[in-house]
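quick one, 453 residues, struct below
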Amino acid sequence: MADGGILSIDETVKKLRGTFKSQKTKPYEWRKAQLQAMLQMMQENEEELRESVATEMRKPKLEVKMTEISTIRNAIKHALKNLKSWMKPVPVSTDIVQFPSTAKIINEPLGVVLVFGAWNFPLNLCFVPLVDALAAGNCVVVKPSELAPKASATVKKFLEKYLDPEAFAVIEGGADVAEELLKQKFDHIFYTGSERVGRIVYEAAAKQLTPVTLELGGKSPAFVDESANFETTARRLLFGKHINSGQICIAADYALVTKGAMEPLRAALLDAYHHFYPKGEAAKDETTHLVHQRHTDRLLAMLNEDEKVRGEIVIGGQYDRDSNWIAPTVFYNTKPEARMMQDEIFGPLLPVLPVEDLGDALRFISDRPHPLAAYIFSTNRTAIDTFSSGVATGAVVVNHIILHFSQSTLPFGGVGSSGIGRYHGKSGFETFSNRKAFLHKSSRNVFDLDIVY
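---
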């Protein structure tokens, strides 16, 4: 036991393993009680939860309400509503050679699982996978991001107060703690974050043959053609760079716009910008700040690149390095070799590149790693269908940005380097479950054909 009577990481995992072996977490009643406790926690402590996130990156409280509190609450309610049906064995048919027999799929909890949270949505990205893991009947270790220390402390404070301490633990700390956790044997590891760290998690998990869910990111494209409603397209593209200052793995990372749509979209972007920010430019108290100086400097290197490569600034461009703030900024005629086009931006910058047509855009996208999401702004049904079938991605959204993340009935996850596995709703329940095959063959020798043997 560590100093002060606090269990070490190894002792904590062993305690949870003992709880799981006792079968305590398997019954519907236990799972329901944990989810109800989480819902009660959200209702009784909403203001403190909101404040912990709002002060972390000076995030507007309404934005916290929308992207954190409401999404988490909806995920819990969705799980409570559907938990009984998710837990029921699923009957499946059997072949004629198995007659008489019955077969079914039984969803059973995996055991002790590890959830790594992320700093950009420090409540949502801890709580939503936790909801899925608890619904599936697992014991859970949650490791919040050390880059959001106030939110991390709040996560620990309330989860340890409301959830079963025999089946759940929050472990705070930096990279050294994460490294120690990855030495433990878990039955599943869920990680949200960068591709670089995702590779480290994947490599550590492979040593123990532990299955993983990796929610990573990448450069999610948006395509705009001449048939788009430019007013709503501009508002929604700008919305994606306003929310959390674009520090979202599924924000549109760049836009491919047909040449005939470039000027109408430019005019619409200017109108949308002035509608969003009536003072003429974004104010520091209207948008979320960036997580730290290193991230700010990385984005400023993109913003201040040679205009011939970076492109013309159409809207935005203001920044305050000392307070880690950059206004939502759109560039026109960005070159593919620009810094912004090499790695995921993860900030309030949106480069726009002209393309000849949809085919040109699809070739551009397919030449790059698979994105976590892909967006198309169009009213052309053929173009929409061609785009949807032509992009290998975790999700396709038509005429909007990001919204699929809050839909509990849709699986969320990537493909290739943008991620492994799915969660949210039933998909999350199944991720944290062992889908056991069960076949019951009659013991009678009727139809027990010799050919079988």
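The chain is about 40% helix and 20% strand.
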